[in-house]
Amino acid sequence: MERKTKIKFTDFECNLLINGMNEFRNMLLAEDLPTEDVNELLLKIIDKSGNRKW
Questions:
Q1: CB atoms near residue 42 (< 10 Å)
Q2: pTM surpassing 0.70?
Q3: Alpha-carbon 51 to chain mean position
Q4: CB 3.0 to 4.6 Å from 9: which of 5, 14, 37, 44, for a disulfide?
C-alpha cells in the first residue's frame, strides 16, 4: 500500500521548495541525467499549491 503524507507550507516555503527543486532539475539536465522523478514531484507541488502567484 502506498503511503501518503500531507504537509502544509506557507507561500514563501512553497516558492522556496519549487525553486530549489527546479534548480536541482536544471543540474540533472546539465549532467544529462534523468529528471522524471523530479518532474513528477514538481508538478504535484505546483498542482497542490492552488492559486498562488509564482
A1: 17
A2: yes
A3: 16
A4: 14
Q: In this predicted model, what pLDDT tens digit does every residue of 3-22 receive, in sequence order?
A: 988 888 898 999 999 999 99
Instruction: Domain ranges for the chain, please list them.
Output: 17-45
How many angstroms separate the CA atoms of 4 and 49, rounded? 17
Question: Which residue's C-alpha cell is 519549487?
Answer: 18
Q: Which residues of 3-36 are buried (b: 16+ CB within 10 A; e: fewer)?
A: eeeeeeeeeeebeebbeebeeebeebeeeeeeee
**What gap in Å lies between CA 29 and CA 7, rounded to an integer?**
28
